[in-house]
Write a structure and sequence with these properties.
Layout (H helix, E strand, L loop, with lengths): L1 H8 L10 E4 L5 E5 L2 E5 L1 E3 L3 E4 L2 E6 L3 E3 L2 E4 L2 E7 L2 E3 L3 E3 L2 E5 L2 E4 L10 E2 L3 E5 L2 E4 L13 E2 L2 E5 L4 E6 L2 E4 L6 E2 L2 E5 L3 E3 L3 E4 L2 E4 L4 E3 L2 E4 L9 E4 L2 E16 L8 E16 L4 E2 L2 E4 L3 E3 L5 E3 L12
Parallel strand pairs: 1-6, 4-7, 5-8, 6-9, 7-10, 8-11, 9-12, 10-13, 12-15, 13-16, 14-17, 15-18, 16-19, 17-21, 18-22, 21-24, 22-25, 23-26, 24-27, 25-28, 26-29, 27-29, 28-29, 29-30, 30-31, 30-32
Antiparallel strand pairs: 2-3, 19-20, 30-34, 33-34
Length: 308
C-alpha cells in the first residue's frame, strides 16, 4: 500500500488497463496522537485515481479514497471493512460489495435527478450506499434505473442514508429501463408502481414487491422481459408487450404471482414451467406456440395507466 500511496501523491494512477490494485488493509493506519499511537482509516489521497483494471479490497481496516475516482474497470470489496469513495466518483465499469459495505459519497457523477444510467452495480450479501443529495423530510430514492443492478442474498441492498439509518435507495423506483437481477433470497420492495421496459430476473428464493408492475417499451427498440423463478408481489400486473416467463432465462422453474395479471398487446407468455398462485385475465385472443408459450395474435399500442 505504501508504494501505491507514493505513486498517488505524485498524481499518477496504478490502475491502468489490465492492472490489479490490491488493498489488503488488515488493521488500518496508525498515527501518533498525544500519548501514543492510535489506529485510523487508511487514506488514499491524490488529485485523481483512475482504475482501468481491477481494484480489490480485503481485510478489517477501513479505507477512504479521497481522490477524484474514475472507475473504468472493476472495484470490489470482499469480506472487507468499510470502503468509502469520498471524492467525486465516475463509474463506467463495475462497483461491487461482497459481504461488505461500500459508500459512494463523492457523489456519483452519473447519478443525476434520481436517474441511474448504465454500467453495473452488484451487492452480494453486501451494501452499496449512494449519496442521493441533501437530506429532506423523506429519504431520497433512485427513480429511474438504466443500469445493470444485481442483488444476491438476503442481506444484499442498495441504500442511502437518512437521519443516520440506511434506507432502500430503490424505494421509489418508477422506471426500470435497465436490468435488475435478484438472486438467492434477495428482496426488493417499492412503494409505488413500477414501469418496466428493461429486464427483470427474479431468481429462486427472491421476491420483488411493488404497488403495480406495468411492462411496456419506452422506446421502439426495447425488448422488455420478466424472468420469474420465485415471487412477484404486485396487486396490479399488466404486461402490454415483451416476454413474461416462469423460470430463469432459458431455464425451467416455478413462479408465484401475488396479484392479478393482465396480458394484452404483443406479449409472449412462456409456459414451459409450472406456475403456482397465478390468476390472470386476457382481453385478446391467444394461440399456442409450442415451447415459445402463448403468443397474442393482437397488436395494440403499449399503454400503462398514469394513476394508481
Amino acid at each position: 500500500m505504501e508504494r501505491e500511496r507514493r505513486h498517488l501523491r505524485d498524481g499518477q494512477h496504478p490502475g491502468g488497463p489490465g492492472a490489479r490494485f490490491e488493498d489488503r488493509n488488515a488493521a488500518g493506519t496508525r498515527e501518533y496522537q498525544g500519548a501514543g499511537w492510535v489506529p485510523r482509516y487508511t487514506q488514499i489521497a491524490a488529485s485523481r485515481f483512475v482504475n482501468e483494471g481491477s481494484f480489490e479490497k480485503t481485510g478489517a481496516g477501513e479505507t477512504v479514497i479521497e481522490a477524484r475516482l474514475d472507475n473504468l474497470g472493476r472495484m470490489t470489496a470482499i469480506d472487507a471493512a468499510l470502503l468509502i469513495l469520498a471524492g467525486r466518483t465516475s463509474n463506467t465499469g463495475t462497483l461491487e460489495a461482497v459481504r461488505s459495505r461500500v459508500v459512494v459519497w463523492g457523489p456519483l457523477e452519473q447519478l443525476q435527478q434520481g436517474q441511474l444510467p448504465g454500467r453495473r452495480y452488484i451487492a452480494r450479501d453486501g451494501t452499496l450506499v449512494f449519496n442521493l443529495g441533501p437530506e429532506g423530510p423523506v429519504p431520497h430514492s433512485i427513480t429511474e434505473n438504466h443500469a445493470d443492478i444485481v442483488l444476491e442474498g438476503r442481506h444484499a441492498r442498495l441504500a442511502t442514508v437518512w437521519r443516520g439509518t440506511d434506507q432502500n435507495a430503490l424505494r421509489s423506483l418508477e422506471l426500470n429501463d435497465g436490468t435488475i437481477t435478484l438472486l438467492d433470497g434477495a428482496r426488493l420492495s417499492m412503494g409505488g408502481p413500477l414501469r418496466q421496459s428493461g429486464a427483470l430476473h427474479i431468481g429462486a428464493g427472491s421476491t420483488l414487491s411493488a404497488a403495480a408492475l406495468w411492462q411496456c417499451p419506452e422506446q421502439e427498440e426495447d425488448r422488455p422481459a420478466v424472468w420469474l423463478a420465485r415471487v412477484l408481489d404486485a396487486p396490479d400486473i399488466r404486461i402490454f408487450a415483451g416476454r413474461f416467463s416462469a423460470g430463469a432465462e432459458d431455464e425451467v422453474g416455478r413462479a408465484a404471482i401475488r396479484g392479478q395479471l393482465l396480458l394484452s398487446g404483443r406479449t409472449v407468455l412462456d409456459m414451459r414451467a409450472s406456475i403456482a398462485s397465478m390468476s390472470w385475465t386476457s382481453t385478446v385472443p391467444w394461440q399456442w406456440a409450442g415451447n415459445c408459450g402463448w403468443r397474442s395474435k393482437a397488436i395494440s399500442p403499449c399503454w400503462a395507466p398514469s394513476g394508481s
